[in-house]
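=== RUN LOG ===
request id: a7f3
mode: sequence -> structure
chains: 1
length: 319
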Amino acid sequence: MRIAVAIPCYKVTQHVLGVIDATGPEVEAIYAVDDACPDGSGRFIEQNNRDPRVRVLYNPQNLGVGGAVVTAYKAAIVDGMDIVVKIDGDGQMNPALIPQFVRAIQQGKADYTKGNRFYRPESLRGMPPVRLVGNAALSFINKLSTGYWPIMDPTNGYTAIHTAVLRELPLDKLERRYFFESDMLYRLNTIRAVVHDVPMDAVYAGEQSHLKVSRVLPEFLLKHVQRFFRRYVYVYLLRDFNLGSVYSLFGALLCMVGLVFGISRWVHGMVTGAPATSGTVMLAALPLLVGIQLLIAFLHHDVSNVPTEPLAPDLADTP
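=== RESULT ===
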């Protein structure tokens, strides 16, 4: 298969040439995307690079990491590439791992692969504690919103994808900035693509992160909630109505009935001073307990509904 590498370039002039030099011969094309970089990453690469595989692409305005990657994706599709691997230009992603990222796709076992820095305990030694806790929490939230329950480290940007699957995605609708990786997983689930994790080590060389956690955390949570409900409506109400749909609808209904009845009885007791009887407590608790059990059953059904049949082999064979 023809393998290409996409490198978003924004303030990476100190490391990007080393990343290019470390890219192995299995890669046929390297797309370095100058995302309106104030340091002139594109011109710097053109003036100092000697690798004939490199092609510099320019975004007229800064579109964020997602916008830069989409620019490279579109170029790879036009050039007839089969797999596109995305790595950062800051030297924190080892290009020597590219064969591991493309192997499952080449073997027809996956449509999309991504790095996982949580796979081995030894891999976490270099990760700052704040990132460790934050990524663990985001990983669980991401499981809910995207439906890929076996996947960890959703913000990991070391990825590979088959271009046949890329053609099925609405590239122009993908998130352009820091939510790009999570949105990519959400979009992949809507087309039932198979995603695999690839173990890798965390590397932090002291580069200044442009991500402000306090600013993006509320935005991330809101977008995850939105995508959970979008996925639920599409997968469990529109595309298919199955046992998981029944569990979730009746579970939510019973929880609501139990809560509304219990709160109303509690308010009535506070106003009148009359204590609630054991029967009243049971009438409030029973639908709530049954509803919670049904919602747990829905989550169990959702976990078992993770895509397992790759799309890429069939899509690639389609004229």
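=== NOTES ===
The chain has two domains: 3-212, 241-303.
Residues 196 and 319 are 26 Å apart (CA to CA).
=== END ===
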